[in-house]
Amino acid sequence: MQEKKVFADHLAQRIADFNFDHFYSKRNRILLHLAMWFGFSCLLFLSYVLAYHLSYQNALILTIRMTTVNAVVFYLFFYVLLPRIFSGSGFRIIFLLLVTFPICIFIWIAITYFISLLYHYIGFEIPSGELKGAIKMAADQTFAQAVSPKRLISQAFIVISILSPFFFVKILFEISRLYNKTLNIQNQKAALEIQNINMEKQFLTAQLNPHFLFNTLNNLYGLSLKKDDQTPEVILNLSDIMSYTLYESSNEKVSLEKELDFIKNYIELEKMRYTADKNIQYKIASGKDLFGHFVPPLLTFTFIENAFKYGLKNNHDSFLFLEIKVENNQLFFSLENDKDKEQTQKEFGGIGIANARKRFQLLYPGKHEIHIENLETKFRVSLKIDLY
Q1: Taking Cα atoms as reference points, which of 313, 314, 307 lies closest to residue 353?
Q2: Beta strands at 330-338 and 294-295: parallel, antiparallel or unpaired
Q3: pTM as predicted
Q4: pLDDT given at position 343
């Protein structure tokens, strides 16, 4: 039993390591399909020559007919009908599959009949052997006779036996590719979980390090000396940030309202470090639009942290504009800030931005759009997410 498990794990790992996307390129797909039909044609040709004692010319002509018919039905089923079938619900899929098989058999017989008519018209016939006169016999039928229910049933087993090797290979390949994708997604999710844990640790360290606390407490001290009315609010903001990083950020999802409250608190604390000439503005959604929506914690924090870390450097025209809104179950995030012309792409949060992109791809595959512009004098991020 243990040996079987080891073998299964080893096989699963080999499948997971195989790069289907790289292997199954457009060029390789064409070559594999050509090889498949060439192999089928060779076996069919030998069958006509050895089993039915046909001449090479007759065997070749019949091979062309049979290969053409099978190729048409194969591609029609897998590349036209099947994608549409699996776009529906479970019951609809089963029903359409049951209907599709007799349709494919009908098409197989119909194409065979029309090719036989063409062969008969150009004067081709099999003069001897077990298939003697087969083309004329097929052409003498009416279309209704050729595709009659009785003939459909009688030919069904022949069609299934001929097409089954191609269907088996195709289905086996697609199952392997799907299994490969599933394993890779699982591995990516595991890596993402580890990455998220590391991000949370890094975030917690960044927010609770002595420098951050010193700046915040120093500002608090100054406010308290002046008996400023903002002192209680600043203390509450700091408390909320520490609570969020300690307790909420370890969850897989948090309410969107809590995430946005955290961002507001963070910005308010950061604003205390800057003079009034720094143009820091934000507009963050609130109210009923946020109800029922949940997001991974610290979803956009990398961009906001970078904006304060690398932005607001110019002596004149320093700015940071942030807008977050929710409309029609979509989250819109827009951030823009100035930057020093001397800063390079790498310095401006290169690794953090790359990780953020990867995180969105894993968390919201096909459900997000992100545009990042690292311009000469400013940095801009636009993000749209379809909320679940």
Answers
A1: 307
A2: unpaired
A3: 0.49
A4: 61
